[in-house]
Amino acid sequence: MNLYFQSIFALYLLLWIFENFPLSMILFGIAEQLTHYVILTNFPFVAFSSIGFVASVLFVVINHYLAFSYFATVYHPFSEVIAFFTLFLWLVPFALFVSLSANDNVLPTTTDRIDGDVVSNYFSKRNKKYGLLTFFNYAKESLLPMRTKKGF
Fold first, then answer.
1. How far apart are CA 111 and CA 81, in angstroms?
2. N or C: which terminal CB in the chain sees fewer CB atoms within 10 Å?
3. CA gyration radius for the chain?
4. CA nearest to 25, candidates 57, 70, 61
5. Is the Transmembrane helix keyword given for this protein (predicted)?
6. Eight-state DSSP code of residue 128
7. What sign results for the dihedral spanned by CA atoms 130, 131, 132, 133?
C-alpha cells in the first residue's frame, strides 16, 4: 500500500487515541481512504459508475457530515479544523479531480499531417482548447461584470 495511505491510517489512529475523535468518524474516514485507494489502483481509468467510485462519493458525503457535526459540538481552533478537512477529506478527491480534468494534449506527441513536424502541428492546432481552465475563463468572461480601466 502507498506510503500516503499508511500515514493517513496512522494519523486516524492517533486522532482517535489522543484527540478522542468519535470512532464512527475514524472508521468512516478509513473506509473513505480505502475506497480512494481502490479507485487509484487503475488510476487513469476511472469508471464513474463503478462500485468503488460510488462508494467513495458516498463516504466523502458521510465523512463531511460527521466532521461538520463533530466540529459543531466540540471546539477546535479554526486552523486545526482546516488542517483536518484538507488532509483527511479534501486532498485525495481534489487531486483526483484535478488530474482527471488536466488536458491530455498539453505536450505535442503525434502529428496528423504528413507535411509538418510535431511542433508546427501542435502550434497550428493550439487554438482549440478544452479543459477546466477554458471553462473557468469562459465563465469569468460571460458571468462576471467587466471592469473598465481608468486612464490618467
1. 49
2. C
3. 22
4. 70
5. yes
6. -
7. negative
| Global pTM value | 0.61
Q: Distance between CA 41 and CA 31 in Å, rounded? A: 15
What span, in angstroms and rounded, lies between the C-alpha atoms of 111 and 105? 12
How would you write the pLDDT of the chain (152 residues) with one tens digit per residue? 678 778 888 989 998 899 888 999 999 999 998 888 888 887 777 777 888 889 989 999 999 999 999 999 999 899 999 999 998 888 888 887 777 666 555 555 554 555 555 556 555 555 555 666 777 777 777 776 666 666 65
Which helix or strand (DSSP H or E) is residue 151 part of?
A: none
> Whole-angstrom Cα distance, residue 95 to residue 81?
20
- Look-up: residue for cell 465563465? 139
- The pair phi, psi for residue 67, each rounded to 5°, is -70, -45
The three cell numbers of residue 2 are 502507498
